[in-house]
Structures are given as C-alpha cells and as structure tokens.
Amino acid sequence: EEGLGLPAPDYKKAFDLYSQASEQGSPNALINLGTMYEKGYPGVCDQNFEEAFNCYYNAAQAGDPTGLYNVGCAYQEGIGTKQNYRESLKWFKQAAEIGDY
Fold it and tell me: In CA terms, which of 36, 60, 76, 82 is 20 to 30 Å from 92?
C-alpha cells in the first residue's frame, strides 16, 4: 500500500493483493483491506464502511488484536455498523486481553 521502493504507490495492486490474501484468511490482509475500504481510493475502491467493518470483523474472528480493536472502534463510532457502546467495550476488552490495546 505504501509503495516503498516504487516511484509512486500502486494502490490498485495493493488492493488486489490484499483481496487475494484476505480470501485465504490473512488477518493482516483483512485489516489492510478494511482500511482501504474505510478511506476509499478513487479508481481503486469506493469508500464503504460496511465492507470495512466486515473485513475488521473477519480479522477479529481469527483472533487478531488489531481486528478486535477496530471492531470495537466501529461499534463505538457507528462506522459500518450500528453504534453500540456495550458491544464496543466487549471488543475492546478482548483486544486488551490478547494484544497491546
């Protein structure tokens, strides 16, 4: 995504590679793909908060602490899902139990 070592970032290639890796269950790819959906990249992917949430949720289901944290943030802010502070706290606690959050 950053395009390190290349003349310019190739967001399309990053999106394609994250998509392929996420289909194979890579939590890191799911998180990066979710971030791309959350931000939106013209000509690559539209901003889609629901799709971002789904990516984060799938990473969380794989036990990834960043995925757990991102799902908590989504519930806290109501991004891609209905705002729910209790649900947010549940996900934040899980992230804190296994990660650095």
Answer: 36
- What sign results for the dihedral spanned by CA atoms 58, 62, 27, 66? positive
Alpha-carbon gap, residue 85 to 41, rounded angstroms: 29
* Token digits of residue 6: 């290349």
**pTM attached to this predicted model:** 0.90
Contacts of residue 27, defined as CB under 8 A and 6 or more positions apart, other chains included, come to 58, 59, 62, 63, 64, 66, 67
pLDDT, one tens digit per residue, over 32-41 is 999 999 999 9
16 CB contacts (<8 Å, ≥6 apart)?
none
Other Cβ atoms closer than 10 A to 16: 12
CA dist., res. 8 & res. 74, Å (int):
31
Q: Is the dihedral of CA 19, 11, 45, 65 positive or negative?
A: positive
pLDDT the model gives residue 93: 96
Q: Coil, helix or strand for 43?
A: coil
